[in-house]
Backbone:
């Protein structure tokens, strides 16, 4: 039940009607008995500045930010956290006495889910597939965990090389076309393989990154940050190879839980968040 003291939260994007964040966060807020409400807010790109001003005017406690605003919103905020600055995107905004602080919790969600699955990335040889926006958060998370090296496999090495150059001097990073022999060598040495591309995401279930699985060790840990379907073609191929696998559900819930704590000062029940996500996915997919 909402009261005159209810604090407002939400997610800003365009479109945003499909977002499962309201279900996930409202379930966690209810479980914690907190007087907050979380809603979806469609904001067209040309209305972003006014929407951000509205957060201050209406006294919103905070919001999540999704496509296409994660980078564009940064110029309208008063403070940018280090992770968000390095990743180049904000997915969480906290209103602190009228000052809007921007954060990126994707790195936290990615690493926490990995560690909860029993895999510690420190010192490991990594193959990362993709070089888009999601890859930046994953790459930065791996660097902060001090992996031994990162091979980036992509269709467009030129774009990926720009990303690798930005992080030069952290850990050894090399970029390869998926068909390059150097990429196959990276696969042979990999302890950890992670897909950050949208290939295989619902409803295009037949898609998958180009990986020759004969080069991948059955002892490698394989992670796909896609959470729908539960098991992508990529993860099925990895499982058939004998690899331990993980999908993106934990990352999604983990980044949400990190935002929840920034807003409320309390830890979220991640199990409750995951249950709400699964229920929302079942409803969305009929």
Residues:
């Amino acid at each position: 039940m909402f009261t005159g003291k209810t604090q407002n939260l939400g997610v800003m994007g365009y479109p945003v009607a499909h977002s499962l964040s309201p279900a996930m966060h409202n379930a966690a807020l209810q479980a914690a008995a907190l007087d907050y409400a979380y809603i979806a807010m469609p904001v067209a790109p040309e209305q972003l500045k006014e929407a951000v001003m509205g957060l201050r005017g209406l006294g919103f406690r905070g919001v999540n930010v999704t496509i296409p605003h994660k980078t564009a919103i940064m110029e309208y905020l008063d403070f940018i956290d280090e992770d968000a600055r390095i990743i180049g995107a904000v997915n969480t905004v906290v209103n602190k006495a009228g000052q809007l602080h921007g954060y990126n919790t994707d790195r936290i969600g990615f690493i926490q889910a990995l560690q909860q699955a029993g895999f510690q990335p420190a010192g490991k040889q990594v193959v990362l597939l993709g070089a888009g926006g999601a890859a930046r958060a994953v790459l930065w998370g791996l660097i902060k965990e001090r992996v031994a090296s990162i091979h980036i496999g992509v269709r467009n090495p030129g774009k990926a090389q720009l990303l690798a150059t930005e992080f030069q001097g952290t850990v050894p990073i090399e970029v390869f076309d998926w068909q390059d022999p150097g990429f196959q060598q990276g696969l042979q040495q990999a302890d950890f393989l992670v897909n950050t591309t949208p290939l295989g995401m619902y409803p295009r279930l037949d898609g998958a990154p180009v990986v020759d699985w004969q080069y991948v060790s059955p002892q490698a840990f394989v992670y796909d940050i896609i959470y729908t379907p539960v098991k992508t073609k990529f993860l099925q191929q990895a499982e058939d190879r004998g690899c331990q696998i993980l999908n993106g559900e934990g990352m999604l819930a983990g980044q949400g839980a990190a935002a929840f704590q920034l807003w409320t000062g309390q830890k979220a029940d991640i199990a409750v968040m995951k249950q709400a996500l699964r229920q929302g996915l079942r409803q969305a997919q009929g």
Q: What stands out?
A: The chain has a mean pLDDT of 95. The first strand starts at residue 7 and ends at 13. The chain has ten helices and twelve strands. The two ends are 29 Å apart (CA to CA).
